[in-house]
Design goal:
The complex is a heterodimer.
Chain A (H helix, E strand, L loop, with lengths): L1 H23 E4 L4 E4 L4 H13 L5 E4 L2 E4 H33 L4 H14 L3 H19 L12 H30 L3 H8 L4 H38 L6 H5 L4 H33 L3
Chain B lengths: L1 H4 L3 H23 L11 E3 L2 E3 L22 H35 L6 H12 L2 H9 L10 H15 L1 H16 L2 H8 L4 H37 L7 E4 L4 E4 L4 H7 L8 H33 L31 H24 L1
Antiparallel strand pairs in B: 1-2, 3-4
Helix pairs in contact in B: 2-3, 2-11, 3-6, 3-7, 3-9, 3-12, 4-7, 5-6, 5-9, 7-9, 8-9, 9-10, 9-11, 10-11
Classes of the chains: A mainly alpha, B mainly alpha.
GO cellular component, one term (chain B): plasma membrane
Family (chain B): Belongs to the binding-protein-dependent transport system permease family.
Subcellular location (chain B): Cell membrane; Membrane
Chain lengths: 287, 356
């Protein structure tokens, strides 16, 4: 419990520090040197706390327009949350499926090699390549598979979901593959084989149960990977999600609000994956 | 036929590719056909017009084509690749050295302080490129600062902020190893903490540290690429208004990709060529890491009892104790120490050349 409180405090401090960073760092044009101006900090934080305590989230700049954050945050939050939830959950399920349960078949081995190959390519390159591919497909066939207009509905949102899902899938798949191979050399697997249990049964009852703690331990890393990619994807694909507040401004108000909503989104995503794993365990595993 | 399958291709291909990259990054500027400021003048020759943007492989003088202002892409790449390689190497060297030392010592403590774990956990939540984005968003534009200052700042900030993850993974491994029986035996025999760490724990982890080192290089390049998509190019961004364009000062690879982002609809080769080079860079480091991992895995893994689909095809390479040690005998360790010496010299040379 102490650790959870400690972590919460650290994350809060980290976010507040990050949000104030643009107003602290600057350049001195005459001497051409970096300057750290910490004297602004109390004022910046004072303004932030005053704004929050008045019950408003403050304003942000959209072009030349100054808009209330609280008016726009609902829709943007939902969009980002939807993308993250679908992307990360798909990633976890796919990596488990290909990593453990069907990895031994000849056809899936091909998929595994493909996944391994993709895992060596950095995520942002995959994102750019897929964009190039989408443009090419549109030029060649005239079929519009993605749209960069924020009001295009499903066309605007399905592609980000897939792209957000790529990084968690590849990362977890690599991890699961290594762990699966390690665990299958353990003595309790030999016992299970000697008892004449079926391979599927061993995969469910012995292997999955022992891989699950590693997956849960890596889950924060997976979610943070997905969040990192989400920033880039929303920026490149013009999705009006929560990152709009963060990239369009350099004031503390929108950045801090944006980062805190990101924190909330990743918490919800984390618990949704935990729920999926729990349901899977209740449904398929003999407890 | 079986023997052909058992060659560790990714190790050999990785070594060849990485040494090619080193060659390019050291001698690149001397090989470049043009300087960074020369442009293609529109000309009319034998019935064809040569005008920018030139497609690749059209003119012998401009082998990879030009961008829409007539600057040679191959020269830009040859000038820029050393920044990409050496900056990522420098960052990885700094953070791996400090991170390993801290992590390995903390791992042998009786218990890890809880504040340390919570810092590591909360740090892993925030995407690193976001911290760098906020750090550089206000200083990177409009070449007010010197390029070398920006590069040094980037190297230091990136190595500091990515250290917690290294410390955490080294610490976990070190804790795990320090529970082993042989550590207990060494302790009983009166070995000091430093001896236990450097003679018993470190040799156990040096292989995984090497793999981690190479993967971290790829990770740094990824961060540079992500920043470049936000128009933050390492070494400074030139901003031109009317029309608004962002240009990289150093012509570093990810910067080239970032500044050519607008070419996705039309002159695709301006974007694709640096992207392929960047892909090649990351791929060769990944191949090297993968090859090393394959070798260590085949040496140390236990054989699985069930069919997993991940069986390595490589034969384990055993240590041969009987053979006499002559001084030129080729071993992995010698190769790796030579590579590290080269990396050190290269990075030092690079620092010297950018501050000059």
């Amino acid at each position: 419990m102490v650790r959870v409180i400690q972590q919460t405090i650290f994350i809060f401090l980290l976010i507040l520090f990050l949000a104030a960073l643009p107003s602290v760092i600057g350049v001195n044009p005459e001497e051409k040197t970096l300057t750290w101006d910490f004297s602004k900090l109390p004022q910046v934080y004072g303004d932030f706390i005053k704004e929050i305590s008045q019950g408003s989230l403050g304003t942000y700049q959209l072009g030349y327009q100054e808009r209330e954050i609280s008016e726009d945050i609902g829709d943007n939050f939902n969009t980002s949350l939807l993308i993250m939830l679908v992307g990360v959950n798909i990633g976890v399920i796919l990596s488990l499926l290909f990593g453990i349960f069907i990895s031994r078949f000849r056809i899936t081995r091909f998929v595994n090699t493909l996944l391994n190959l993709f895992a060596t390519i950095p995520d942002f390159i995959i994102i750019i390549l897929s964009l190039i591919l989408a443009v090419k497909i549109y030029k060649m066939t005239g079929i519009r598979i993605i749209s960069l207009r924020p009001d295009a509905g499903a066309l605007n949102i399905w592609f980000p979901m897939v792209l957000v899902g790529i990084a968690p899938t590849l990362y977890l798949f690599k991890l699961v593959a290594v762990k699966y191979y390690q665990i299958s050399g353990e003595d309790y697997i030999r016992t299970a084989v000697a008892k004449g249990m079926r391979l599927n049964y061993i995969n469910f009852q012995h292997v999955f149960k022992n891989i699950e703690p590693f997956i849960i331990a890596e889950l924060t890393k997976v979610v943070s990977l997905a969040i990192g990619n989400m920033f880039i994807i929303e920026y490149l694909l013009n999705v009006s999600g929560i990152t709009k507040f963060i990239f369009l401004s350099s004031e503390i108000q929108p950045i801090a609000v944006g980062l805190f909503s990101m924190l909330l989104i990743s918490l919800i995503t984390y618990f949704s994956v935990r729920l999926v794993l729990y349901l899977f365990k209740r449904g398929f595993l003999y407890e | 036929m079986n023997k052909l399958f058992r060659i560790n291709y990714s190790l050999y291909i990785g070594v060849i590719f990485v040494s090619f990259l080193f060659f390019l990054s050291i001698f690149g500027p001397y090989l470049a056909p043009h300087t960074l400021t020369e442009t293609l003048e529109t000309k009319y020759e034998n019935g064809t017009i040569f005008a920018p943007p030139l497609e690749p492989f059209e003119a012998a003088e401009f082998p990879l084509g030009t961008d829409k202002w007539g600057y040679d892409i191959s020269s830009m790449i040859l000038y820029g690749i050393r920044h990409t390689i050496f900056i990522s190497l420098a960052i990885t060297l700094i953070k791996m050295m400090i991170g390993t030392i801290i992590g390995i010592y903390v791992g042998t403590w009786k218990r890890t302080p809880s504040w340390m774990e919570s810092i590591e956990n909360s740090w892993s939540y925030v995407p690193l490129f976001l911290i760098l984005y906020f750090c550089f968003n206000s200083i990177n534009f409009g070449n007010i600062l010197e390029t070398s200052t920006l590069i040094f700042t980037f190297i230091i900030v990136t190595s500091v902020i990515s250290m917690p993850s290294i410390i955490s993974s080294v610490r976990k491994k070190s804790t795990e190893i320090s529970k082993s029986v042989f550590i207990e035996a060494a302790r009983t025999l009166g070995a000091s903490r430093h001896r236990i760490i450097w003679k018993h724990i470190f040799p156990q982890m040096k292989e995984s540290l090497l793999v981690m080192f190479i993967l971290e290089i790829v990770y740094v390049i990824t961060i540079m690429g992500q920043l470049a998509l936000m128009n933050i190019f390492i070494g400074g961004t030139i901003v031109r208004y009317d029309p608004l364009i962002y240009l990289s000062i150093t012509k570093e690879l990810s910067g080239l990709v970032g500044q050519a982002r607008g070419n996705i609809y039309g002159t695709l080769h301006v974007l694709v060529i640096p992207l392929i080079l960047l892909l090649f860079t990351t791929l060769s480091f990944s191949l090297l890491a993968n090859g090393l991992k394959n070798r260590y895995q085949s040496n140390y893994q236990r054989t699985p009892w069930i069919k997993t689909g991940f069986e390595p095809k490589l034969m384990p390479k055993r240590k041969e104790y009987e053979k006499r040690n002559s001084w030129w005998k080729f071993t992995d360790e010698k190769l790796i120490s030579v590579i590290f010496i080269f990396i050190f010299i290269g990075v030092a040379f690079y620092f010297y050349s950018i501050t000059k």
